[in-house]
Amino acid sequence: MTGWISGIGQRFLAFVEQTGHISRFFGQAMYWMFKPPFRFRLFLEQFIFVANKSAFIVCLTGVFSGMVFAIQIYFGFRIINADALVGPAVAIGFVRELGPVFTGIVVTGRAGAAMAAQLGSMRVTEQIDAMDVMAVNSIQYLVVPRIAASFIALPLLSCLFIFIGNVGSYFTGVYLLGIDPVLFFAHLQEIVQVRDVTQGLIKASIFGIIFSTIGTFKGYYTKGGAEAVGRSTNEAVVETLVLILVGDYFLTLVIRAFLYRTL
Amino acid sequence: MSNEFTTDMPSQATDNHAIVLRNVHKSFGGGRYKVFKGVNLDVKRGEITFVLGPSGVGKSVMLKHILGLLKPDSGEVLIFGKPIPYENPSALNEMRKHFGMLFQYAALFDDMTVYQNVAFPLVEHRKMTREEMRLKVSEKLLAVGLDPEQSMDKFPSELSGGMKKRVGLARAIVLEPEILLYDEPTTGLDPVTRAMVDDLIVDTNEKFGLTSVVISHDIPSALYSADHIAFLYDGQIVFYGTTDEFRKCEHPVVQNFLQCEERHRKEMNA
């Protein structure tokens, strides 16, 4: 019994310690983000890596998500003769939740894992040490451009996901399920409001910070050899996904309290 | 700025010394693993000093202390008579510009060509035109025995171990540092490349008038290249002297080290 409690205690302490380390790491990145030299070329490279190279997979997952949600919502709403609300229901779901969350998940799997692997590999081959020895701040050079690029890229990718998802939903609703196209759009404007879009974009930006911070943190502090790089990558992806899904709930509460003045 | 790191005003006590470690203590794991138990070492200007010792004794930890990547629990590290400014990141970076370092596996940036690797410190710390930079990189590649035309556009994955070391060395000396550090430069190399690296250490030191510190456990390399040898064991420097004094050292661990090397040599001759 004592061992069991002590086990929980140790895990909790390890969790608190890691949270502290990540917060300190993020604080350092923020400090160096606003100190010259500003590395715009590196930022651009990372932006292209995160945004441009994730665009196809975001479109692919977006269109199929939109299509399947349209089908599922249609069969639910048809029972109460609310077929016309399929479009707005998919749209509001995508704008508020599915857009940022799914984009966060997809980009974590692609770019977050790659960040952890790249930095982890640089750490175990002493490339990060070499940078520090050459009087180049490795956090400013390697971490800051990745976090800044992700912070901006994720809302854009999220917009793309939402747009493509709604296109998928429209085509499935109108051409497969036979919903009147006029009805499909009829309630869209009155149901989906600007603050819903704001909510989605805020979430996407925060998810961008989460996945890039955890990805770079895990890679930057990799200890050991090639096996450790794999472990860091794995931990980065799992921890980011958990944090995105858990964080989404609390973010929703906070954002609703501020933007909607209600829960 | 009073705490700005400069090398032009060495203190009187360490006038002749580039690096001084005074009674350095360091432990890890909340004090469980004591790596240094009062390390004292004076590295003279213009010399090649080898720090020898068994694996895991803390030789690389010593390098990290010299570079200010680790801070001693107690004691002090002086570079050209000045204490390392741990609390001031800008001054620490200034101090590091006086160092060049060749890593064990060269630590070249995978995604950069040889030219980009060698030019990296110049891009970061010098205002130069493209042409000046190219000339400087060519000069340093030639100095370490590489043909610039043939090597500049290659990626590290296309280079042999010996070539990587040469490129790593070219990158280490491109800012014309005063102190050059080598971390296990001959480990894992074939005998021919090892001899080449030994020559490179001596030549580079003479050509550029540097102070070199070589972390190693390679006795033949030390006897060939070193002006002074320090032997690190059990958290302390148990021997410091010339190569001749090292051969005659009676410390049991040094003796054991030398005897094992002798056994290897005899087997080779047999």
Give the SSE layout:
The complex is a heterodimer of chains A (about 260) and B (about 270).
Chain A: H1 2-33, H2 40-50, H3 55-77, H4 86-124, H5 127-133, H6 138-176, H7 181-186, H8 188-191, H9 194-220, H10 226-260
Helix pairs in contact in A: 1-6, 2-6, 3-4, 3-6, 4-6, 4-9, 4-10, 6-9, 9-10
Chain B: E1 17-28, E2 33-44, E3 48-52, H1 59-66, E4 74-79, E5 82-83, H2 89-96, E6 99-102, H3 114-125, H4 130-143, H5 148-151, H6 161-173, E7 179-183, H7 191-208, E8 211-215, H8 219-225, E9 228-233, E10 236-241, H9 243-248, H10 252-269
Parallel strand pairs in B: 3-8, 3-9, 6-7, 7-8
Antiparallel strand pairs in B: 1-2, 1-4, 4-5, 9-10
Question: What's the total count of β strands of chain B?
Answer: 10
Question: With helices defined by DSSP (H or I, 4 residues minimum), what is the helix count of chain B?
Answer: 10
Strand order of the largest sheet of chain B: 6-7-8-3-9-10
Beta-strand content bin of chain A = under 5%
Percentage of residues assigned to helices of chain B: 40-55%
Globally, the shape of chain B reads globular
Radius of gyration computed on alpha carbons of chain B: 19 Å
Number of strands of chain A: 0
Query: How confident overall, as mean pLDDT of chain B?
Result: 88
Helix percentage range of chain A:
over 70%
Largest sheet of chain B: 6 strands, mixed
- Summarize the largest interface: chains and residue counts: A-B, 13 and 22 residues
